[in-house]
Amino acid sequence: MTDRWARAEERYREREADRRYRRDDRAWGRDSRGGGEPPDDADDWDDDEDDTTVIPRYTDEEPLYDGPPLYDDDDFEDEDDEPEPAPPPRARTARVGRPESAPRSRSERRPQPRRSGSQRGKRSRAAARKAEERKKRRRTIWIIGACLVALLVGAVGFAAKKFADSMAIPEDYAGAPGPLVVVQVHPGDTAKQIATSMVDKDVVKSGAAFFEAAVRTPSMSSVQPGFYAIPSKLSAADAVIALLGKDSRVGNVVVSEGRLLHDQHDVNTGARKEGIYTKIAAASCIGSAAEKKCVTYEQLATAGADPDLAALGVPSWAQSSVKAVPDRTRQLEGLIAAGTWDFDPSATPQQILKQLVSASAASYESTGLLQSGATTQLSPYQTLIAASLVEREALPQDMPKVARVIVNRLEVGQQLEFDSTVNYALDRTEVATTDSDRATRTPWNTYAMTGLPATPIAAPSLNALRAMENPEPGPWLYFVTIDMKGTTLFTQSYAEHLRNIEKAEQSGILDSGR
User: Fold this and answer.
1) CA dist., res. 201 & res. 48, Å (int)
2) Which secondary structure element, helix H or strand E, spans residue 407, and what is its range?
3) Mapping DSSP to helix (H, G, I), strand (E, B) and coil, where does residue 200 land?
4) Are the CB atoms for 381 and 317 separated by under 8 Å?
5) What DSSP letter does each residue of 103-163 carry, written as one string?
6) How many CA atoms lie within 13 A of 15 on its CB side?
7) What angle do CA 392, 395, 401 make, to 5 degrees?
8) Helix (H, G, I), strand (E, B) or coil at 192
9) Are 359 and 315 in contact (CB under 8 A)?
10) Which residues neighbour 396 within 8 Å (Cβ) at sequence distance 6 or greater?
11) Which residues pair with 231 in a beta bridge?
């Protein structure tokens, strides 16, 4: 048993020695089979050295293994078994500069690819680019994250503020009201927008208070666009009540069709027919009793005669003709259209007139006034003058025919001979005119001149303006109203026209009160 263990230990030591100190026969000038010729430089070897091809076997002085037995007795069948021959060592090629007995590193055992400098440079640049891209991605992620956090914080803060505002009691005035102020309600304004205007004019302390009071008042929906005189420094509830008051609206004027700038009086009754300036003055009043403030008729007449036409809002298509008007007090005639208008009564007389003239010009232009001359050969201002004649001479159903008479007479150079142009310059008027009145030469009397008057003679309606822009086709040159009902006869023949005049005289419509 002892011999078997000794032979096993010896075989183990031999295998370990062969593994650790394996030689390459070719490095000694012989092939792996132990034969062959010595190398060419064998003569250079030392003759004294022992001529042998066998390397002395290295034997450790100390046992290679101190642990428990590596083999059990069962690994061997009997004591007489012969030891197994050790496997022949694999031939290896000796490397220059290193003894064959030295162990080889893993890098030496495996062939390594050789890389050029350009390849190493490309790999370095690619790695740098990738590193930079990773850095940019990280920076972008941080920026996006910071933005999202900021938005979240802002949204939370805004929501918290809105919630706090909704829970807070709106500020409101308490105490005696202040002086009157004028607040404008624009077309389409909501309760919030009206509240903003109230705060701007210091009517209420806060828009929230007015809005809450307004939504609790169903009649707020009846508020119309315009200007309202309301005391300042009111509580929100009182401000809503003041806005809805029947006397709060100011600066609202109604201009009827055919109305003149200045007052006139009827010959038969002596009644005054108020002009546009008088109407504006009455609508401009703010307050009551001793605190009442109004723009006067005289102030408006003076402002209307201002030669600065742009300051009065005169449109560019009328300015050259208005500059040539012989009477400055009548230069705005016809430029304030018939209709219902709103103006700021707290403004100056000049500013009030500019508001009305500008709004009227826009209304006129909406009918196609600027393009109407293609069929009538009249300028926009001439069309406005002719429309005022139609307004004063005809009922709505006859307006297109009267417009055609005007165009036909202008084309042949025939005088218009309209009584309305005679009455325009008179303070006391009637339907009929006298021979003396018709013979008086004025810039407006079409009995005494050919062509159109110097200015419009009244505020035309949009119907009269449309009739003048598109006259009814026809050959008529004459017309006359034959009764108080407004029946009007049209003809191309002067003889027939004289017969129609006789019918008018028989009805008494042409009788003069003078």
Assistant:
1) 128
2) helix 399-412
3) helix
4) yes
5) PPPHHHHS------HHHHHHHHHHHHHHHHHHHHHHHHHHHHHHHHHHHHHHHHHHHHHHH
6) 11
7) 90
8) helix
9) no
10) 463
11) 180
Q: Which residue has the tokens 């006397």?
A: 247
Distance CA 381, CA 404 (A): 17
CB 322 within 8 A of CB 331: yes
Whether 173 contacts 233, CB under 8 Å: yes
Provide the 10 A C-beta neighbour count for residue 407.
Answer: 16
Question: What does residue 491 show for φ and ψ, rounded to 5 degrees?
Answer: -160, 160
* Centroid of chain to Cα 171: 33
Q: What is the full DSSP assignment across 235-259?
A: -HHHHHHHHHSTT-EESEEEE-TT-
Cβ proximity of 499 and 421 under 8 Å? no
The pLDDT of residue 385 is 97
* Cα separation values, 192 from 7, 19, 322, Å: 112, 99, 43
Tokens representing 66 are 């101190």
Question: How high is the pLDDT of residue 168?
Answer: 62
CA 70 – CA 479 distance, rounded (Å): 146
Please write the tens of the pLDDT for every residue from 469-489: 999 999 999 999 998 888 999
* Residue in the block written with tokens 């990738």: 130
Residues 6+ apart with CB under 8 A from 207: 192, 195, 196, 198, 199
Round to whole Å and give the CA distance between 380 and 364.
10
> What predicted TM-score, i.e. pTM, was given to this entire model?
0.66
Return the structure tokens found at 239: 């401000």
Rg (CA), the chain: 59
Contacts of 465 (CB under 8 A, 6+ apart): 364, 367, 369, 383, 384, 387
For residues 249-282, b (16+ Cβ closer than 10 Å) or e, as one string?
bbbbbebebbbbbbebeebeeeeeebbbbbbbbe
Residue 511, amino acid: D
Low-confidence stretches of the chain (pLDDT beneath 50):
28-55, 58-62, 64-65, 71-82, 91-102, 106-107
* Residue 509, phi-psi category: left (phi > 0), alpha (psi -120 to 50), beta (remainder): alpha
List the beta strands (DSSP E) in 121-205.
Answer: 180-185
